[in-house]
Amino acid sequence: MKLFYASASPFARKVVVAAREAGVIDRIEIISTTVSPVARNEDLIAANPTGKIPTMVLEDGRVVFDSRVICEYIDGLSDNIKLFPTHPDTRLAALTLQALGDAMMDAAVLARYEGFMRPEEFQWNEWVEGQKNKLESSLDYLESRAMDVLEGPITIGHIAVACALAYIEFRGVLDNWRASHDELAKWYTSFSQRDSMKATEPS
Ligand code: BEZ
């Protein structure tokens, strides 16, 4: 299988962390891919019309996207742990946590792109603040309402939240979120020590 990938993309990182945790990383050929919201990557668009990474191409030519679908596919290949639990309650908790992590990635990437990609004269500060507000309330939610799930066995939700937090720090989207979110910061420090996270640090 081939994976269109960029190390800076938190969504692509989520897939590779999941593949490492699931023990199937050796079956995946990583294709380093340059993406931009304003420039077409024809090789990628030939596979995925939205031109987004991560995109996976299977041996038989089938194409799988987005990160949620790829991660679920990878999980199905694994003889290891299950990142998508089967029990309805734990599955719901994992999927909801994944949705929160993914939404945090969306907000962080939008905030980053507004400052980094858009010409200065068109930049909209309220837009950036709106994205940062979403991140702040998500961090508060994780700290006050999700620590019991985060402290349980690893699921796709844990990976999504960790990759979102890593991206926020990598791109400096928020100033020192750790100071006001003690429990989450402790959990993230520990999760970041996993081999799967250390092997996928963005460059
Ligand atoms: C980034 O460089 O921040 C980035 C790259 C790809 C996807 C999303 C973000």
Instruction: Report how far apart the termini are.
Output: 23 Å
Q: Indicate the CATH topology of the largest domain.
A: Glutathione S-transferase Yfyf (Class Pi), Chain A, domain 2
Name of the CATH class of the largest domain: Mainly Alpha
Mean pLDDT: 96
List key phrases describing it.
203 residues; Glutaredoxin; Glutathione S-transferase Yfyf (Class Pi), Chain A, domain 2; alpha+beta; binds benzoic acid; 4 strands; single chain; 9 helices
Structure description:
This protein is α+β, with helices and mostly antiparallel strands and about 200 residues long. It folds into two domains: about 1-75, Glutaredoxin; about 90-195, Glutathione S-transferase Yfyf (Class Pi), Chain A, domain 2 (Up-down Bundle), CATH 1.20.1050.10. The protein has nine helices and four strands; from the N terminus they run βαβαββααααααα. The chain has a four-stranded mixed sheet. The radius of gyration is 17 Å and the shape is globular. The structure holds benzoic acid (BEZ).
Quick structural overview:
With 203 residues, the chain is α+β, with helices and mostly antiparallel strands.
List the helices and strands and how they pair.
Elements: E1 2-5, H1 10-22, E2 29-32, H2 42-47, E3 55-57, E4 63-64, H3 67-77, H4 88-116, H5 125-145, H6 147-150, H7 156-170, H8 182-191, H9 195-198
Parallel strand pairs: 1-2
Antiparallel strand pairs: 1-3, 3-4
The chain binds benzoic acid.
Residues 6, 8-9, 35, 109, 112, 171 line the site of benzoic acid.
